[in-house]
Specification:
alpha/beta; 12-stranded mixed β-sheet; 11 helices
């Protein structure tokens, strides 16, 4: 359950973190657990109106520790981050701290004024959830959401911000992938990014092999001249490949409660440590992160823990306990 993207050019902001000499280079920060859309594929339970919003002071603490460890990029996400009451304050603070900033959004609240604000705050890229006209409103559970996502892409392009159309792909929409990508390409998006939610929570996707999904998407993207492939999935080779963001020590998933979780796409939260622990510096957190990744991987080859579950082998210190935890839908 990971990301593969296709671009027309071999250079864009998402690649900058791969040149970092300090790992982890990227933090994905969930600033709220709430979302006004009810996406059927939602892996984090954000479509259940959890109403948990990160306090601004916690965001300040987290970014301070990220700077200590040398992290380059922050992705501000949710839920729907633009529905956090202090959203603009969060973006402005991340900009002041000098991070490479990406925003992950359904796009409903991005009008031209918002797009110009994001540009003024040096947001490098905005990733819009995109399911195509045929399925978008049904998947998102909100009438008119396709038109608002399309408007967001237009406004972002007008403001001069890189855009990515993020497409969740499975059996229900793979037959329409050419159509979905063509519609996104009409807005001159920088990247067409796909991921297959064949992990937990999406039974209508099960039985479809990840590699076959990505091959089909690569074929459709190439027809539109998106020929440069970046893969974060261990089963799929791109022109640039990082086999699992987590196990490759590139990426940190930070929850709205300040917890550093393993991946974020696994069936239920697996906490590695706490960014808000006053006894831990950024350097301490980095050391814990690297150590726990090594312990969890054990002597296994890098694999997708969301898709396959945590593997057990000699040298793996924690998998039995983790595999027996209840599924996310049992915790909600």
């Amino acid at each position: 359950m990971c990301l593969v993207s296709f671009a027309k050019t071999s250079s864009y902001s998402a690649l900058k973190k791969l040149q970092s000499k300090t790992m982890p280079a990227w933090a994905y920060i969930v600033i709220c657990d709430d979302c006004s859309h009810k996406c059927s594929w939602c892996y984090g339970g954000f479509n259940h109106s959890l109403n948990n919003f990160m306090p601004f002071k916690d965001f300040q603490t987290i970014l301070g520790k990220l700077k200590e460890m040398g992290t380059m990029q922050v992705s501000i996400a949710g839920g729907e981050p633009s529905e956090h009451p202090d959203f603009r304050r969060f973006v402005s603070y991340a900009s002041e701290q000098g991070f490479l900033i990406h925003l992950v959004s359904h796009g409903e609240h991005i009008d031209l004024e918002m797009a110009e604000f994001l540009k003024a705050q040096h947001v490098d890229q905005v990733q819009i959830n995109w399911q195509g006209r045929r399925n978008h409103d049904g998947v998102h559970g909100v009438q008119g959401s396709y038109e608002k996502a399309a408007s967001a892409l237009s406004h972002l392009a007008q403001a001069g911000i890189e855009t990515t159309a993020t497409i969740t792909v499975g059996k229900y929409n793979l037959p329409y992938i050419d159509e979905i990508m063509q519609e996104a390409a009409a807005f001159n998006v920088t990247r067409l990014r796909v991921w297959e939610a064949t992990g937990h929570g999406t039974p209508f996707l099960k039985g479809l092999e990840a590699a076959s999904i990505f091959d089909r998407c690569r074929e459709a993207a190439a027809k539109l001249d998106y020929v440069h492939c970046l893969s974060y999935d261990p089963v799929y080779q791109g022109d640039v490949s990082v086999p699992c963001l987590q196990f490759s020590n590139l990426f940190m998933y930070i929850s709205s409660r300040g917890k550093l979780d393993f991946c974020g796409a696994v069936p239920n939260p697996q906490e590695l440590t706490d960014f808000l622990d006053p006894c831990l510096t950024g350097v301490d957190i980095r050391q814990i992160y690297l150590r726990r990744n090594k312990e969890i991987l054990g002597d296994n080859a890098i694999y997708c823990a969301s898709r396959e579950g945590f593997k057990e082998k000699e040298g793996n210190a924690h998998p039995v306990k983790w595999m027996k935890q209840p599924a996310m839908n049992q915790l909600r």
